[in-house]
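Per your request, structure below.
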């Protein structure tokens, strides 16, 4: 898992006040603003924890792996009102810790707690990089890209902390995917590089295994590069349905290798009951939820046998593909 873009919420207007030269502080409820930020961070923490567990648990079977420390930053320049965010969080700089994924190298150091100010990345101060006054997410992306590159090139990274001190982190390999949370959005989608989940998707009401099942579906699209395959072969209904079926069927494999209940994948469809997208006599882009649940359940005996014999569910070898990953090259 790569470090995510993080505060997409800022670009969506997480903070209620707009950026302006003069802020009427008497009308700003800093406690409310801080609570809104912390609520978003709690959702993001859950997404990063689950994403890390899935990406780490399946690393032996992914085509693309990357070194990662599980650290995600925030940049107040990406907020609607950086000055309000700064006061609400009690920060002087723009860069701070957003999340450290549970079980990751970053989570092993108490110094990297949420909202701890960051002064340097391998000796370079990202706060000094130019940024626009508000809603500027590009600088945060630059920081996360820099972390990824430094880990790939150096095999470690040093995070300098405000007030002195630094944390040296050694990465571990994970499946290549970024997990991003979008505020005030009901999206659930994936590209060849990232999984995007909206705070209003309804997923955060699920228990741990059901939530992981939903993330596993989107991650399956990323790991199998369905976006790239559809780019090469077209996005007709038949192609979309084929890739959706494949992602559904891979869900329990990813769950099992990460220590989750693989049967939760079928339970997700039976309880969430996602729409198929069909209209009258026109077939939808997805199978009906009953069919999707049954397809998942058909994978469970194979997974159980593999785990009993090999200790892992090697989907890179035993999973039956429905699309040819090389087609259209």
């Amino acid at each position: 898992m790569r470090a995510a873009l993080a505060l997409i919420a800022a670009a969506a207007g997480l903070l209620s006040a707009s950026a302006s030269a003069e802020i009427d502080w008497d009308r700003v409820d800093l406690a409310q603003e801080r609570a809104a930020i912390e609520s978003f961070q709690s959702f993001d923490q859950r997404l990063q924890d689950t994403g890390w567990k899935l990406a780490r648990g399946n690393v032996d079977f992914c085509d693309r792996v990357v070194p990662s420390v599980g650290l995600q930053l925030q940049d107040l320049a990406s907020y609607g009102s950086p000055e309000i965010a700064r006061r609400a969080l009690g920060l002087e700089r723009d860069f701070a810790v957003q999340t450290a994924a549970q079980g990751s190298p970053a989570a092993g150091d108490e110094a990297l707690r949420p909202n701890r100010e960051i002064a340097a990345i391998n000796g370079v101060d990202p706060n000094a990089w130019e940024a626009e006054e508000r809603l500027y997410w590009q600088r945060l992306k630059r920081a996360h890209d820099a972390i990824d590159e430094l880990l790939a090139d150096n095999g470690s990274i040093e995070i300098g902390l405000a007030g002195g001190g630094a944390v040296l982190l050694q990465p571990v390999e994970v499946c290549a995917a970024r997990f991003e949370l979008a505020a005030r959005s009901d999206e659930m989608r994936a590209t060849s590089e990232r999984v995007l989940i909206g705070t209003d998707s309804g997923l955060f009401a699920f228990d741990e295994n059901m939530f992981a099942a939903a993330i596993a579906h989107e991650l399956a699209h990323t790991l199998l590069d369905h976006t790239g395959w559809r780019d090469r072969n077209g996005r007709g209904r038949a192609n979309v349905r084929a890739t959706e079926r494949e992602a559904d069927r891979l869900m329990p494999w990813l769950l099992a290798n990460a220590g989750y209940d693989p049967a939760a994948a079928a339970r997700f469809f039976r309880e969430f009951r996602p729409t198929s997208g069909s209209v009258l006599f026109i077939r939808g882009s997805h199978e009906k939820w009953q069919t999707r649940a049954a397809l998942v359940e058909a994978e469970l005996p194979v997974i159980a046998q593999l785990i009993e014999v090999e200790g892992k569910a090697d989907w890179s070898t035993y999973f039956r593909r429905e699309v040819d990953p090389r087609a259209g090259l």
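The two ends are 26 Å apart (CA to CA).

Regards,
D.
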